[in-house]
Amino acid sequence: MCILMVIAMSSIALAAEDPVQPNAPRNNVLRYFDYVFTGTFTFEMVIKMIDLGLVLHQGAYFCDLWNILDFIVVSGALVAFAFIGNSKGKDINTIKSLGVLRVLRPLKTIKRLPKLKAVFDCVVNSLKNVFNILIVYMLFMFIFAVVAVQLVKGKFFHCTDES
After folding, report:
1. What DSSP designation does 19 have?
2. Membrane-spanning residues where (predicted)?
């Protein structure tokens, strides 16, 4: 329950950031909060790795896709923090953009709430059907685009406006 509250506070802090003025006093305060949140998530990840083991047996940390997502989010935040302090005038915006992975933090709640996980699983399963419908839709769009090009055949090559 404590981690759920940290995830919620982290999401609120992320929403409160001002992207237009990156050096605003509010962003500086929120950056310190982000350090605390990232430290909490790192501590949770390390404790989980020690408890579950890494890879070598069933139920290990890296055998669960949600734990892999958690590892990517936390590692991205740690790498971004490491390079924010060491920029030294170099253009490392690509590395700094790893901080965008913080947006995925609310996804950590899915594993902790079984009903939310059931809803998420239903959405993922329905996306397979939506993808098939999208393919049929694109096929129809292509057919009608080819028919329209054949019907028009350059008839709109000149202006019809008299002014």
Report:
1. S
2. 35-56, 68-85, 130-152
CA separation for the pair 118, 114 (Å, rounded):
6
Other Cβ atoms within 10 Å of 102 Cβ, number? 22
Asked if residue 104 and residue 144 are part of one domain, the reply reads no
Residues 36 and 51 in one domain: yes
111: Cα separation from own chain's centroid? 16
Which of 109, 118, 125, 5 is CA-nearest to residue 66?
109
pLDDT in tens, 84-140: 766 555 555 666 677 678 888 888 888 888 898 899 889 989 998 899 999 999 999
Number of structural domains the chain divides into:
2
Within this chain, do residues 30 and 100 fall inside the same structural domain, yes or no?
yes
With H, G, I as helix, E, B as strand and everything else as coil, classify residue 90.
Answer: coil
Domain of 162 in residue numbering reads as 114-163
Listed in sequence order, the residues at least 6 apart from 144 whose beta carbon sits closer than 8 Å to its beta carbon are none
Half-sphere exposure of 96 (CA within 13 A, CB side): 9
**74 close to 105: Cβ distance less than 8 angstroms:** no
